[in-house]
Amino acid sequence: xxxxxxxxxxxxxxxxxxxxxxxxxxxxxxxxxxxxxxxxxxxxxxxxxxxxxxxxxxxxxxxxxxxxxxxxxxxxxxxxxxxxxxxxxxxxxxxxxxxxxxxxxxxxxxxxxxxxxxxxxxxxxxxxxxxxxxxxxxxxxxxxxxxxxxxxxxxxxxxxxxxxxxxxxxxxxxxxxxxxxxxxxxxxxxxxxxxxxxxxxxxxxxxxxxxxxxxxxxxxxxxxxxxxxxxxxxxxxxxxxxxxxxxxxxxxxxxxxxxxxxxxxxxxxxxxxxxxxxxxxxxxxxxxxxxxxxxxxxxx
Length: 300
What we know:
The chain is an alpha+beta fold and 300 residues long. The chain folds into two domains: 101 residues, no CATH class; 130 residues, Immunoglobulin-like. 43% of the residues lie in helices and 22% in strands. It is built from seven helices and seven strands; from the N terminus they run αααααβββββαββα. The strands form two sheets. It has a four-stranded antiparallel beta sheet with strand order 4-3-6-7, covered by helices on one side. Strands 1-2-5 form a three-stranded antiparallel beta sheet, with no helix packed on it. Helix 3 packs across helix 4, helix 3 packs across helix 5 and helix 5 runs antiparallel to helix 7.
């Protein structure tokens, strides 16, 4: 049966022997070069590469610490800070020091990305609630008719929209709708326009009441097709004209909720960002944060 105390003593002796090996001097550049050369005399090719990796990582650590604590390192260059960090350290101590930083940096990134996800989840919930409220001013009908702006004008396509207040509150005050026209084939946005105003107490849009929009179709949309002369109105299928028309509220006002505006990004944006962060966290957790995982570039 093996003696556990003998094995422990052997491990301690090996560690002590390793600690007593050559050390790096960070006194100045010349002392560093001399001590590094002496240390490398006892290293094989792989160990030399790991030493170089470690030294470069320690410079990164120095840069990070100076960035985070500028007052502490005021007047000191990155090289000076990194020299102080490695001064008196053996090969094994330098490797451990660098890998400890890699692990701490990995864990910090995971924590930061996790916090970012938490923040995005809160913003997503907030955006979803606002979007739900503003979507209560709902587009119910959309079509294209033929009409005249003035009695002596030739007839031309007009866009007809009907929005219904599906909420339980009167919509009153500022409102805004956005209209976008796209090419169905290419997805190119042909035109976009906002339309809005202010509804006073005499014209509050009560629950289940509708607001109708009737204005000339955007010139860009008219010019996009040559089928208008033979069109049969009203038009509800825009595909033959290579058009996709979207209309939605971007701002509404109620007495209880005040004025609310549609978030600049939709819920799908948050889902994409959160998915990306989760993938990055997964990748970070799969790393061991060791020098072996790094590739040394510009090998000498």
